[in-house]
């Protein structure tokens, strides 16, 4: 079942363009010039129920505009869009009961009242039955470890404490689709791990669909098997992380420290038939670049009986390095 289905989704903004100089300012009073900016440009998007998808792109790529259309805040200029079976902007009142939203820099909790009172207000807003509310809330409080925060006003919470409470608030009504915009921004490693573990649990237990927008690609690596890359309003990649690495990564590298001097010709002979390129750093330190289809174990198996190896280091491009390479190189073939 599709949680999100978009066909030719487009959003354009009409932006005032002022003329230069004093005369231009006077002319703008009576005759204004406008230009059209296309923030999202005919994108097709399908996300199935239960998927955890990373939605990434540079600043100005169109991520936030897409999320605002998917959540019903903005109406598309053109194209077809259904989310959880609803048209988000036209059926907003019914639609919002099926989604949860967490924006890293915005709060849905009331600033001056206790956290538990914010939860209770959200229960009333979404009309969640008491029995269902109590049972689900107890579970989330336990997993997110916020029992000692319930009586504190939101303004007294640290950023990490508030983000944990924000996640619980977004899930009070057990939505089938959760939008996360920079949910771990500014958080320490321990809090990030807790939040990631919580998101994995709700995804597995309730089959909650999660769309994650972030600049922290470690979140994507920890949570998402699928990533969608946006550039200048268009999708330039939609697929799994492994394919992203094999398509744009430079392959694995092996760095070896050996006990005695070994020539490149010897190394090439020992690994004949494998797609390996050898280079020498010092007399007793050599490196190999492996083709994506060449297993590290095969290369090492060819060497261990012939060369006394002191140390092995395996290196692979991180997702962040690969994404940077794609944007810098302008590669757009998905």
Secondary structure: elements and pairs:
Layout: E1 2-17, H1 21-30, E2 33-48, E3 52-57, H2 63-70, E4 78-83, H3 92-95, E5 99-103, H4 115-126, H5 130-144, H6 159-170, E6 177-181, H7 189-206, E7 209-213, H8 217-223, E8 226-231, E9 234-240, H9 241-248, E10 253-258, H10 264-270, E11 276-282, E12 285-290, H11 296-303, E13 309-315, H12 319-329
Parallel strand pairs: 3-7, 3-8, 5-6, 6-7
Antiparallel strand pairs: 1-2, 1-4, 8-9, 10-12, 10-13, 11-12
Helix pairs in contact: 9-12
Protein model, in words:
With 334 residues, the chain is α/β, with parallel strands linked by helices. It has two domains: 2-246, 3-Layer(aba) Sandwich (Rossmann fold), CATH 3.40.50; 251-316, Alpha-L RNA-binding motif (Alpha-Beta Plaits, 2-Layer Sandwich), CATH 3.30.70. It has twelve helices and 13 strands. The strands form three sheets. Strands 5-6-7-3-8-9 form a six-stranded mixed sheet, with helices on both faces. Strands 11-12-10-13 form a four-stranded antiparallel sheet, with helices on one face. A three-stranded antiparallel sheet has the order 2-1-4. Strand 8 (226-231) and strand 9 form a beta hairpin. The protein is globular. The protein starts with a strand and ends in a 5-residue tail after the last helix. The model has no long low-confidence stretch (mean pLDDT 86).
